[in-house]
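Structure first, sequence second, as always.
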């Protein structure tokens, strides 16, 4: 663990430090020149990414729906080869015979 002296050095005060830092950042900001169409370019890229995301989501939903439908149809088509127990007609009938 290091020990730092909390007392300011000679000739430096918090106001001076803040002023110098502010001047340095202002000089740096003055040197930055944005491209004239930077907003339009960034917005266009964002819109393309948003459109691509929506298309991918729509395709994914369509694939999942089609897959679920095909699996459901396949399961419903898997009928047993022998007749079922419930409707075999071998048990006693619950209806009254017609005279």
């Amino acid at each position: 663990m290091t020990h730092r002296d909390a007392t300011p050095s000679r000739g430096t005060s918090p106001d001076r430090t803040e002023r110098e830092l502010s001047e340095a950042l202002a000089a740096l900001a003055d040197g930055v020149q944005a491209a004239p169409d930077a907003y339009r370019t960034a917005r266009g890229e964002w819109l393309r990414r948003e459109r691509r995301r929506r298309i991918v989501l729509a395709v994914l939903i369509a694939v999942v729906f089609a897959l679920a439908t095909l699996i459901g149809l396949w399961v419903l088509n898997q009928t047993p080869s022998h007749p079922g127990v419930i409707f075999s007609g071998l048990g006693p009938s619950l209806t009254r015979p017609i005279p």
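Margin note: Residues 53-77 form one domain.
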